[in-house]
Amino acid sequence: MNAEMVQSYLRDLIANLTDSPRPDWDSDGDLPVTYRGSQCYARVIRAGEELIVQTFSVVSEVDYTPELGEFLNELNRILVFVRGFHTGGQILLENDLFAHDLNGYTLSRALTFLAVTTTDFGPQMVEKFGGKPRFDPTIIQQQIPVDEDPPGLYL
Hints:
Blueprint: H1 3-18, E1 31-35, E2 38-47, E3 50-60, H2 66-78, E4 83-87, E5 90-98, H3 104-129, E6 132-133
Antiparallel strand pairs: 1-2, 2-3, 3-5, 3-6, 4-5
């Protein structure tokens, strides 16, 4: 599968799901996505022979502490579709999709899982460990419907 084709398709899907113009890549090579009250990002990476679409949200400017490590270990124990980790002064909540599985439904699900996890744990992480949320802190007050069928685009 061609990486440029997947990147273009991902931009189309994000525009369709968010009812906004096609996003542009930021300086880190990520696509900013505002979805269900959560600011997150998407990117396409190569893992061996596979192309992977990663979606993630961020709390930046956070120093690693043993307490943060314990919190993330517990978080990863209970989460199924999203993982949390600390790298480069940031806490990332992330999930992955194989590019060959990418469509409107799978991207919507990935972004919804990420938004729900960010809603449930993002404000708590900022309160406990400090840092700068890269999501809208008011999302904790918003309901996230998880049963609706998203519009689909298929590659």
